[in-house]
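Lay summary. Proteins are chains of building blocks that fold into shapes, and those shapes determine what they do. In this project we predict the shape from the chain. Here is one chain we studied, written as its sequence of building blocks.
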Amino acid sequence: MPIYEFKCKECGNIFETIVPSSDGVEDVYCTKCGSYHVKKEMSTFSRGLSSGSDKPAGGAFTGCSSKSGFS
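And here is the predicted shape, written in a compact code that computers can read:
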């Protein structure tokens, strides 16, 4: 089930919620004021860090190293 980010058109609250594929986003309501006037927002992709490491999980490319000749 995907997690979507929403913004309430009434109070401006930004929140995330899981939306089952069988339900529509019209059933989503604001977690602060209860309004159903919410808009699905564009979320940024987040990737967690692996436990005990300062590198992203999965060895994702994070930029050029100084050894590559690029700065």
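What the prediction tells us: The longest strand covers residues 3-8.
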